[in-house]
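Predict the structure of Transcriptional regulator ArgP.
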Amino acid sequence: MLDYPSLAAVAAVIREGTFERAAAVLGHTPSAVSQRVRGLEERLGAILIQRGQPCRPTDLGRKLCDHVDRVRLLEQDLGPDLGRDGILSGSTATVAIAVNADSMATWFVRAAADFAHQTAVTLDLRLDDEGQTANRLRSGEVLAAVSSHSAPIPGCRTIKLGTLRYVACASPAFMARHLSEGFSVEMLAAAPSLRFDRRDGLQARWLREIHGTELGKTVHWVPSTQGFLDFGLAGVGWGMHPVQLVRQHLEAERLVELPPGVTIGVPLYWTVARLHAKTLIRLTQAVQDAATRELQVRDV
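Done. Here is the predicted structure for Transcriptional regulator ArgP.
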């Protein structure tokens, strides 16, 4: 049988990144946490944590951390029946979720709030590109993910949520500076654009699909959804924004929609571990409800 107090120590170090922070969370000394981790490694004959700043899990360490998270969720279902006699009693159940930044800034907060009002389970959100979040689920780092991929993942189920729509826009000052003689595809392609990071292909996709041209080389890299919007409002560059975030700015004419006024969509899916835990059922329902209210749920 696995030594769950030691497993809890391993999981805490992996989650917190250092033995000191793990000790503070567990209410032990760093020395005691280190002894538990080292003792478990010796019994298993394998290294579970790569020491460093921050500490990182080995493949086996990640699998054991994932196991601890699942056991906590299953114990959560038993609730009062366990009292303080659970193998991980005294620890708070947490669900790790991989989610993209634009979902976090728009519709996902409603899902998180609905879930938080129903349960004492906490959320550990990991930000990543929607094209990469599923990889975190495959590795066992998270139990659920908002992803743009519908491909099945072993041990998980996938639900289509809807489409997050994006609109191309820029500030009036940007339009006056770079498109003063009227809209031109060539001039827009050469004008400064905004990109979230190197994986952000929305601007290039819009130009290619709508105007049949390629994105220019003048790019400002802004890895923050709010910062991306602020840069657009300040006239630094043009970019693709979630419709929900810019609707009021467009109505107030702080931003201008670029011709021909065609939005593009990113389909989103909810992929969650097939773990028979009430917590994950509640979470999935909260996510589906929020997506139904906030996302385009039918193709147009």
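The radius of gyration is 23 Å.
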